[in-house]
Write a structure and sequence with these properties.
Elements (H helix, E strand, L loop, with lengths): L7 H33 L4 H53 L25
Pfam family, one: WXG100
Protein name: WXG100 family type VII secretion target
InterPro entries: ESAT-6-like_sf, T7SS_ESAT-6-like
Length: 122
């Protein structure tokens, strides 16, 4: 059976990656929209109407994609907070059972120097 290992830092990095991807996709789709709109300027009649409808749909779906990526990033930030808090609770419970546990980490991330706190807007 495949085993997956996830750390709080991995979750925080994934949230940042979602934000970066959302911005990159938004930029690329904006450039594409500008290019394609230039091509549609020469169309008339029914084809111009169809083109306008397609561009409206393009904009709606572009915004939906961006919002979905941003929402995934926000969800991952919430998961980061829950993960760290849950691990801290687990560690407090272990110390509460036997305060003399050897090598019990105090930081649930296991890597205190590399854990990035979530943004202040959470």
């Amino acid at each position: 059976m495949t085993q997956y290992n996830v750390t709080p830092q991995y979750v925080a990095n994934a949230a940042t990656d979602c934000d970066t991807t959302a911005q990159d996709v938004q930029t690329q789709l904006g450039l594409l929209r500008t290019y394609v709109e230039g091509l549609g300027a020469s169309w008339l009649g029914v084809s111009a109407t169809q083109f306008a409808e397609m561009m409206t749909n393009f904009q709606v779906y572009s915004v939906a994609l961006h919002d979905a990526l941003v929402d995934i990033g926000q969800g991952l930030r919430g998961n980061y907070v829950n993960y760290v808090n849950s691990e801290a609770d687990n560690l407090r419970g272990l110390v509460g059972i036997d305060g003399n546990l050897v090598d019990t980490p105090t930081d649930p991330s296991g890597q205190p120097a590399t854990v990035t706190p979530p943004p202040a807007n959470l």
